[in-house]
Design goal:
Radius of gyration: 22 Å
Order of helices and strands: HHHHHHHHHHHHHH
Number of strands: 0
Structural class: mainly alpha
Shape: globular
Number of helices: 14
Strand content: under 5%
Distance between the termini: 50 Å
Length: 329
């Protein structure tokens, strides 16, 4: 049965990808990308990668299509004729795809028990993480403790992406902001507004649950941050930028994005000041496991704050800069 489900999902992925490549209606393409993200999330669920499925569903099927739709308000809905022949583009795509397939031939088969990762890395984490870290969710132990420095780098990359977007698109005009508010706030959206008011509180509550339940089940700062941002974005769509920014201003989002990275980094500084290695949580409490729990809780909170803030900042910036033309027309 699992094989049948995998074949069906893979077939659907291929069909959706072909339609994306052939479609010249960018609105349809964005919707297909959202469907593609949901299918990928289903694949991750089948592979028991629930944490990744959370993120893919929220980003690939949620926030990313919304940013694309806002961009379409400025660039137009239909694709213009390209400068390069379709045959050339198809040839380049086929060559790159062939190289990727050829590269995977040297990798172990999926699920191969003799693969190096199952012979060395996985047994170490599975057998020792309960004693050393004391967190039931091994994924959280790996990402937040064993690979804490690597995860810090990922958070810094997200923060840097936010800074880059602000540097390139941070100069949007207030006229565009007014125009996109006007088109979002029209009276015919009353039913959607009522439904959104019912849905948004559970979404935000679920984000907090995912944030603070990551020690015991799928979740953590990355997933919770994206889910929380999706709730704010949904509210913005139906009530406008001005209303949302009265609660969460753009300046406060910028500060929070930096604060999350700072909070993560300061945990490592505390470890250094107490004579331990950087991000060694044993220094945070007299009991080693208590120190691990405390350190993971704080750094996951920093991750969640930064991820949510950067995602909201992306939406604010795109809505402010790419909302004008579509609102006028």
């Amino acid at each position: 049965m699992e094989l049948i489900i995998n074949v069906v999902l893979l077939s659907m992925l291929i069909v959706v990808a072909c339609f994306i490549a052939r479609s010249k209606d960018l609105m349809v393409t964005v919707i297909l990308f959202s469907i593609y993200g949901l299918l990928c999330a289903s694949f991750f669920m089948l592979m028991d990668a629930v944490d990744v499925a959370f993120t893919e569903a929220a980003v690939g099927a949620g926030i990313s299509p919304l940013l694309m739709l806002i961009t379409l308000a400025s660039v137009g809905r239909f694709q213009q004729a390209g400068r390069y022949p379709v045959v050339l583009i198809g040839f380049i795509g086929a060559v790159l795809g062939g190289l990727l397939v050829w590269a995977t031939l040297g990798m172990p088969m999926f699920g191969d028990a003799l693969a190096p990762v199952h012979q060395h890395v996985a047994p170490r984490y599975i057998e020792e993480s309960g004693v050393e870290v004391g967190v039931p969710n091994i994924v959280t132990s790996v990402l937040a403790s064993y690979r804490a420095f690597d995860t810090l780098g990922e958070v810094v990359v997200i923060f840097t992406a936010g800074v880059g977007v602000l540097s390139l698109l941070g100069g949007g005009s207030y006229q565009k902001r007014f125009l996109i508010d006007r088109i979002i706030d029209r009276e015919e959206h009353k039913i959607l507004r009522v439904v959104s008011k019912i849905l948004i509180p559970p979404i935000l509550l679920f984000a907090l649950y995912v944030q603070f339940h990551g020690d015991y089940g799928p979740g953590g700062g990355f997933q919770a941050g994206v889910i929380f941002a999706a709730g704010v974005v949904l509210y913005t769509l139906f009530f406008g930028l001005k209303v949302v920014q009265q609660v969460i201003s753009e300046m406060s989002v910028r500060v929070l994005a930096a604060l999350g990275v700072l909070l993560y980094g300061c945990v490592g500084l505390v470890s250094l000041l107490k004579g331990h290695n950087y991000l060694d949580y044993y220094a945070l409490a007299a009991n080693p496991k208590t120190g691990q729990h405390l350190g993971i809780l704080v750094i996951e909170l920093g991750v969640g704050i930064t991820v949510a803030s950067v995602m909201i900042l992306f939406f604010y910036t795109f809505a402010r800069n790419f909302g004008g033309r579509g609102a006028v027309s």
